[in-house]
Amino acid sequence: MSAALSLGTDTPLQQTWPMPSRPRPITIIGAGGIVSDAHLPAYRKIGLPVARIFDLDGAKARAVAEQFAVPVVHESFEAAVAATGADGIFDLALPPDAILGAVRRLPENSVALIQKPLGTGLAEARRIVAALDEKHITAATNFQLRFTPSMLAIRDAVRRGLLGDIVELEVHLAVYMPWELWAFIPRLDAVEIPLHSIHYLDWIRSVLGEPRSAYAKAVPHPRYPDLKDARSSIILDYGAMARCCLSLNHTYNYGPKHIEATIRVEGTKGCARLELGYLIDYVKPHPEKLEIITEGGDWTEVPLVGERVPDAFGAVMSNLQRYAAGEDASLDTDVHDSIRTMALVDACLASSRLGGVVPEAI
Predict the structure, then answer these.
(1) Closest Cα partner for 231 from 170, 173, 150, 181?
(2) d(C-alpha 120, C-alpha 46), whole Å
(3) What's the CATH class of domain 146-314?
(4) Residue 272: helix, strand or coil by DSSP?
(5) How far apart are CA 317 and CA 203, in angstroms?
(6) What fold characterizes domain 26-143?
(7) Residue 203 neighbours by CB distance under 10 Å
(8) Mean pLDDT of the chain
(9) Is the pTM of this model over 0.90?
(10) What distance in Å separates the CA atoms of residue 15 and residue 349, rounded to the nearest whole number?
């Protein structure tokens, strides 16, 4: 029996995003690890053309270009912009504190994919969106977790009512994250929530909508003395509708035994459970595993057609290109929606600073 039939439907759950009918050439600004590990493998896999690349570190840009056969390496940001033309797409794969300056240098009426987070905080995110709107730039944020095959499937199951009303959504991590791979992280005022949990917060918004409020606490770890934090606990308040909580420990370092990386979405008619294999070993990712049970059925493993890396990165770019061409009715991670995710991140960070309610002395 196929997974579709065993879930009570003849139609398989959505896991992919259609390609643009006329792919547009991509100009990549930035040549860091995320570009060589995710962006370029994704575009190569589905046939999206990359025309040029620029990075302040010219040697790094040339090495990446050689590895992925990118035809042109530009020596300046201005040269890359001038060569892109009206038909090109910008992919700004930059640290948060470099985004606003880059956006202000983009041409009017251009199209851009912007790396998350959308700036260093909510105030800067507003300035970024204002700069984009002033220049009439169509822009999406690279919240690619929404486009992971497993997440598309879960959201499709929710949208089609296969799980009923959602009453529980829980993210649970006890993993080891090699934060040292990203040189810009030590200069940030906050790490775990704006760089990692932001993906879950954004995806949760796409499933449950806007929470009433947020409770959070982010704490550091002695193994990372230069990082402001590396672990978080977050509760999103959806009233009586649903319990939503995230327990996020990126510093578990006692071998593969008892590593945990799961998401559970429980409804009144069914439940989905996802093992986030790519977090079990960040350097050598494991496959994800999605299981779903629906009313009157059994737990069924849903065969996945891809992984977060690289497939989700190709899907988010495909949505942007299709939207710009009028082929998609909506831009799923439009910066105007992403600013709500930035507001939620801001609320979590404020909650972490403010602390909880002190019990009354007895």
Answers:
(1) 173
(2) 32
(3) alpha beta
(4) strand
(5) 17
(6) Rossmann fold (3.40.50)
(7) 23
(8) 94
(9) yes
(10) 32
